[in-house]
Inverse folding.
């Protein structure tokens, strides 16, 4: 397989995952464990980055996760992951989580998370990723905000 460094759009790697919440993913009040949602968020973010970079990736940063509404057994959890910006080897992804009652159709935005992944070569070292093309005004706004967040993360690390 050849890995291309040609620019890719946000839509090229956007991904949506849907999963029905089962009793073994919940506490005894019927609310889904936050850790389970965190795993789904990480999976969705990694998949979008793998699609963009055509590489295996590792998570390097997860910003704070705030759960605004409980997710219940029987809810369909819909995760949408899209790249917001890329550096040389790193990629920031926004993951939006929505819970839907598949019977009533009622749905709630439960949380939004920002994660950073790094693409790795076969030796396990960071490797260059394709540039990201932000096409819409919304994508351009997200890119500006992503650059601000990444500058803040790197400053915090020092
Ligand atoms: C990710 C990892 C390979 C980076 O290695 P490294 O030697 O620090 O590499 P670099 O310093 O070149 O950093 C690589 C990229 O990560 C970015 N980065 C490093 N620390 C970061 C942080 N705290 N937040 C955001 N981005 C960060 C750098 O800015 C750089 O991005 P760029 O190439 O786009 O400019 C290494 O830190 C690692 O293996 N971490 C463990 C990952 C892991 O196990 N995750 C959990 C399981 S998947």
């Amino acid at each position: 397989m050849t890995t291309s460094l040609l620019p890719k759009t946000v839509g090229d790697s956007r991904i949506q995952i849907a999963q029905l919440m089962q009793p073994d993913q919940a506490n005894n009040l019927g609310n889904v464990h936050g850790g389970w949602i965190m795993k789904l968020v990480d999976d969705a973010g990694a998949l979008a980055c793998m699609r963009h970079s055509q590489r295996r990736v590792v998570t390097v940063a997860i910003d704070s996760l705030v759960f605004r509404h409980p997710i219940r057994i029987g809810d369909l959890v819909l995760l949408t992951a899209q790249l917001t910006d890329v550096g040389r080897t790193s990629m920031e992804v926004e993951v939006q989580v929505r819970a839907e009652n598949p019977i009533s159709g009622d749905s709630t935005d439960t949380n939004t998370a920002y994660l950073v992944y790094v693409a790795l070569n076969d030796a396990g070292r960071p490797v260059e990723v394709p540039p990201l093309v932000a096409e819409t005004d919304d994508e351009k706004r997200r890119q500006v905000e992503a650059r601000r967040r990444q500058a803040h993360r790197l400053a915090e690390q020092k």
The CA atoms of residues 53 and 129 lie 5 Å apart. The radius of gyration is 16 Å. The longest strand covers residues 107-120.
